[in-house]
Structures are given as structure tokens and as C-alpha cells.
Amino acid sequence: MAFLCVDIGGTNTILGAGNGEFETIAKCRTEEFLKDVPGRVEEALDDTHIEVDDIQKTAVAAAGPIDREEMLFYPPNVSDDRGLGEIDLGEALKDFGEITIINDCTSAVLGEYHYGDHELENIVYVTISSGVGAGAILNGHLVEGADGNFAEVGHMKIEDDLKCSCGGRGHWEAYCSGENMPKMAEQIFGYEYSDAREIFDRYDEGSEEASKVIGKMQKINAVGMANIATMYNPEKIVVGGAVALNHPETVVKPLEDQVEELTVNETPEIGLCTLDDEAVIHGLRAVCNGKH
Ligand SMILES: [Zn+2]
Fold first, then answer.
1. How many domains is the chain partitioned into structurally?
2. What is the mean pLDDT of residues 186-210?
3. What percent of the chain has pLDDT above 70?
4. Mean pLDDT of 206-222
5. 161 alpha carbon to ligand 1 midpoint, in Å?
6. Which CATH number belongs to the domain containing residue 36 in this structure?
7. Confidence (pLDDT) at 259
8. 242 and 282 share a domain?
9. Domain for residue 113, yes or no?
């Protein structure tokens, strides 16, 4: 029984198709994917033995708001003037079997738990990318919450100054997401950067200004991670998302030492996720294989 997995990210979409194992994992721009969903899926199936009619299950995760009942997805980084304000996933994926939609961080923790290089029953996945979010498996059980929105940790209040995109104030992701780091630099320190990459580049060159911004980001990340350690008592926190994957030495490495001073619990091991940017797609494979 063939399956299709669709990980719709802010910038790129990853498609995986297979039967038990993946036969293919293909990447394309999210904008291109959303413009012609069946076309991009058929393209991904080209180098497999799978025909569209063979697909009986499709699992979808998306970075952005989803109305699961109506299967509507509102892409956050793709502007309305391209006619992509609201995507009817049920309609777009109607030829590919029964559809399951899950939170992207929930999928990532499932991927790391089942197919990553860990043998642990208590594991939290944290993404630091265009937003900050988490998924958790505790005592071997996936935790999803009443509405499937467990661990919206990016909107955990940490300080009181910066306004978050959700309207709240002082939330974790208002300081540390790739989108928000330049705003944080400007509003707290008065420094202007075109994007997060520039902050990391200046930091690597030894800039004192960038070093203050990075220091602030590291401190806020440490408090967020320590809160997770204190609340959930995981054995390991695995970190994914583009900001962490592209700058592991700066973003992930200092965390364990900093968290140790901030949590009353045993400090968990904190490291990069082992499936790189494919944690989510492997979690969707777990869903299709009935491991959800
Ligand atoms: Zn918020």
C-alpha cells in the first residue's frame, strides 16, 4: 500500500512517496508546489514504481495555520497577490487517498523517535526556524493536546518588551526566530540588519554589535529550553529548523551549559536533530505506517 508524505515548509516543500520505506524524497519551492499540487506530486512519482492510483494514504504537515476540519491551509510566507491566500488541501490532494494532517513539530518528534538515532522514551523536538515550536513524546506517548496544538512554545512568555506576531508580548519567537532576529536587534539594540543571516555573518567576523544580538538570542533560547526541561523532564531535547541547522555551533552548542543553571530538573542532553531537515517527512512516514 503506497503512501505520500507532504511537508509544506515556509520556503521549501518536501515530498516523500513509498511503501513502508521511502522510494523517493523530492524537494521543491513551496510557492511552486502550492500553485500545482497534483502536478508536483506526479513529478515526484516519476522516478518511482508508484502510480497515483496506488496511493491510499497521504500525511501532511505544514508550517502555518491549518483548519484541520475544513482542510484549509493559510501559507504564512506566500503573499496574497499570487492568489495563494488560502489552499484547500482536501481538494488539492483528493486523488491521493485518505488524508491525515498533523502539526509539523509533532511530526518531527515522531520522525526522530522512530527513525532518528536515539533510544529514548522521553524526547522533545524544538524547531528554531521562521518560528519556534515543539513536539514531545513523553514516556513513549506522543502528546498532542486537545486541539493538536500541544507545545506552542514559541508563544511562551519569557520577557516583556518585544511584540510577537500573535499580538502577545515577550514571546520566545519574537526574539529568536529567523524572521524576528533583525527586529529584535533593532528594537532592543538599535542595530539594523537585512536578515538573520547577516547577523550570524557579522558575529562570525567578530562584530561586537552582532555579538550582543547573538548573546541575547542565546539567553532567550536557554530560558525557553530550561522551561521545557523543567515542565516536561525530557531525557533529550533535539533541535531542528533552519536557524539551528545552519548555525549549530552558535545556536545549539551553548544550550546545555546555560540550561543547567536554569532548571531544577536533571539537565537533558541537547543536540541537533539527527534527521536534519527530513525529521518532519520521516514523521509523516511513521503516521502512514500506523505509528501515530
Ligand atoms: Zn506570540
1. 2
2. 98
3. 97
4. 98
5. 12
6. 3.30.420.40
7. 98
8. no
9. no
CA of 153 relative to ligand 1 center, distance in Å: 9
- Please give the distance, rounded to the nearest whole angstrom, from the Cα atom of residue 58 to the centre of ligand 1: 30
CA atoms of 260 and 185, how far apart (whole Å) = 26
C-alpha cell at 107: 511530526
CA distances from 195 to 179, 198, 202, 244 (A): 7, 6, 11, 15
Assigned domain for 110 exists: no
Answer yes or no: is 263 within a domain.
yes
Same domain, yes or no: 95 and 201: no
CA 213 – CA 145 distance, rounded (Å): 34
Ligand 1: centre distance to CA 174 (Å): 7
Q: How far is the CA of 26 from the centre of ligand 1 (A)?
A: 32
58 in a domain, yes or no?
yes
* Domain around 186: 118-273
Ligand 1 mean position, distance from CA 152 (Å): 9
Cα 60 to averaged position of ligand 1 atoms, centre (Å): 24
CA of 172 from ligand 1 middle (Å) equals: 7
| C-alpha 166 to ligand 1 mean position (Å) | 4
Question: Cell for 111?
Answer: 520522525
Q: Verify that 161 and 239 share a domain, yes or no.
A: yes
Task: Tell me the average pLDDT of the chain.
Answer: 93
How far is residue 174's CA from residue 243's CA, in Å, rounded to a whole number?
14
Q: How far is the CA of 163 from the centre of ligand 1 (A)?
A: 8
